[in-house]
């Protein structure tokens, strides 16, 4: 008797569908373009060999400057920033570059009665990946808050932790994301 069970087919990756089905023209703007307090977070998405990934997608989710989320489940009430969407989506260009225009996030409640340092949650989608990866962007000016952050403090290695802190740039911040290899960005299980 022969086995008639068909072979398992390989899983699909999350790309290159991203540029076809998930492009969102307003995506890079978590807040309206030209908002006075707004700034850009720009970076390059690279693979393990350091090569730019031209068919990736970066999504961000964050609190407003008061630490409130634009979501009905936030028990602290609605955000006080009209037009603040809290969500950004940008596909990478031919050089692996992305940009999100946003506001500085505020501290948000953490486990117990702690506060998490101001940060932006980031999801990365790209070719060859079966699932998204998740990381965070922290800001260098929040030295004390970063040191006390319950999530950032789980990253013991100082070099690895530095991959989670954005660098100041002319029009905001730079946050490069490397999926593998030397200086790989720290990613979190969710």
Automatic annotation (TrEMBL):
Keyword Oxidoreductase among record annotations: yes
Family annotation (InterPro entries): Intradiol_dOase_C, Intradiol_dOase_core, Intradiol_RC_Dioxygenase, Protocat_dOase_a
Domain of life: Bacteria
Transmembrane segment boundaries: none
Pfam hit, one: Dioxygenase_C
Record-level Gene Ontology MF annotations: ferric iron binding; protocatechuate 3,4-dioxygenase activity
Keyword field contains Oxidoreductase: yes
Keywords: Dioxygenase, Oxidoreductase
Enzyme class, first EC level, given as a word: oxidoreductase
Protein name from the UniProt record: Protocatechuate 3,4-dioxygenase alpha subunit
Organism: Lipingzhangella halophila
């Amino acid at each position: 008797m022969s086995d008639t069970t068909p072979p398992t087919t390989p899983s699909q990756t999350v790309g290159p569908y991203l540029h076809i089905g998930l492009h969102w023209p307003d995506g890079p703007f978590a807040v309206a373009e030209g908002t006075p307090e707004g700034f850009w977070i720009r970076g390059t998405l690279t693979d393990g060999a350091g090569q730019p990934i031209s068919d990736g997608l970066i999504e961000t989710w964050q609190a407003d400057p008061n630490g409130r989320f634009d979501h009905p489940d936030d028990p602290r009430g609605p955000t006080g920033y009209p037009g603040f969407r809290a969500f950004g989506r940008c596909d990478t260009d031919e050089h692996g570059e992305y940009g999100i225009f946003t506001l500085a996030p505020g501290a948000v409640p953490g486990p117990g009665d702690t506060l998490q340092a101001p940060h932006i949650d980031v999801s990365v989608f790209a070719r060859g990946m079966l699932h998204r990866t998740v990381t965070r962007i922290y800001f260098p000016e929040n030295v004390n808050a970063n040191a006390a952050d319950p999530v950032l403090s789980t990253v013991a290695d100082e070099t690895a932790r530095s991959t989670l802190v954005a660098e100041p740039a002319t029009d905001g911040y730079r946050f490069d994301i490397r999926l593998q290899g030397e200086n790989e960005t720290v990613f979190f299980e969710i």
